[in-house]
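Quality-control log, excerpt.
Job 1 of 2 completed; input and output follow.
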Amino acid sequence: MAFTSFTNLASVVKKYKLLYRENVCEFDLLHQAPASLHEEITLNRLEIPYQNSEIAIGETILFPILKAVWLEFKDFLTLWSHTALELDDILTGYPDYLLASKSDQGKIILGTPFLAVVEAKKDDFTAGWGQCAAEMYAIQQLNKKTDLEILGMVSNGDYWQFAFLKENIFKKCKNNYTIDNLDSIYNFMVSHLKNVLKEFPKK
């Protein structure tokens, strides 16, 4: 089995005895996306057929945004793309993107804790959330720190959905974002990561 064997969010919630909640998730708009990111995303949307595949969505839309967010925290975090992750025989696979703490062993080693996971989905958000939630639970267990709030995201490039996992509470955000409001997407991620990193000792 693998992360992709979970075809909906309910299957993850049921198997791992999580509590499902829905809330509006908002942050004050304190962090605006760099002008260079706006220019890149605008150009990519105009000129590249990114909706053709999940790989194209990831490379053209998701990765540039995640890289811009990561640059705010590059002294503390590493951005991983399609790297192997395994908790057990069931929770295993290749998340599209991960944000994790830097490893003292160097950039080729996955560090913990993991803070965020992102899945690109062409249109099937139902399956996307099954896969993303399974990945969120796996990284929570690998962290061995269940009180650390993990951010999960599913996007088809145009629409972005967010959720959090803390302890045994899976909180799905009611409010979705569109790529036309890039500042809000960028602000959401940066604000969450800043809040989480307040708990980390300075290196």
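Job 2 of 2 completed; input and output follow.
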Amino acid sequence: MSATKELTAVNVVAYTIANEPVAGSKYPVELMMIEMVDGAYVPIGMRKPEGNGPFPLILFATGNGGGGVTMLRDHINTKGWTQEQLLEAGYAVAWMRYRAEADYVYDRVGKLIQSGRQHRQLLNRSPLEYEDVIAVAEYVKTLPYIDGDRLGYIGVSHGGEMALKIAAEYHGFKAFVASEPASHEFLRLRPDETAQIDPATGLLNVEKMLMREVSKVRPRITEEVAKARVAPIKTPFFVQGRDDDELQGIFRVSYDILHEAGKDAIWKSYDHDLHGFIYPVREADGAYKPDAVQLQAFADTKAFFDKYLKA
């Protein structure tokens, strides 16, 4: 492995582990391992247009963490249509992996504090997955072909909730797309009987939670906590819903809390049967075939990013 960059001020090192072609694309990917706050490494797949830049960059996330380089390669090669369109439009893009979600830990711990002991690092707790994204953002902004002042983020499902967590603490992004944000933890939602504790693990199982209606969701959030968490947000948001999703009420309330707090936020919901519709999936014949709804969702997404990252 060859070191590509060192951030001595914050002790961050990144390594290139491979440069690979992407199926059906003229834009290859550089697989990189980036050091996190605690010295662990997470992989990203960086792709950029031809030329030296500097380019605006959009970081991509979806769902829970884990999966490592194997899952990263799968995302790049099977969910790459959205990235291809943005590359053609002059954006650099990067899929990210990050550590696995820790069940409701965000709601139980405070701010991450760094100190030292015996000339080594000391933390008050382990970093969480959204803090990995912040570390990635801080690193990629230093790359010579990236314009560090034009950084965007798009996250689906848990990746959408992460956008809210990041924006509440970090102001290094210029625009967030939170697509189908499963932000029940950020809102401190009190689930009903459709979410139960798994007796085998003691963890809350939300796989079958039904929260379609705003009228059901709004009384179940912890209003004062949600408003306090939204208050520091400065970055514009585009919150995307999915009409028939079982968590549509959570998606909408995520937007409502932003809007009511006077934040720069827009909302649009789409009628599609795929969770994660903003990332069209490569079909069995190797082709991407986004439908009319996905084309419109991408057009809306690109227009949003263009407004804040291309102005």
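Post-run check on job 2. The chain has one domain: 51-309.
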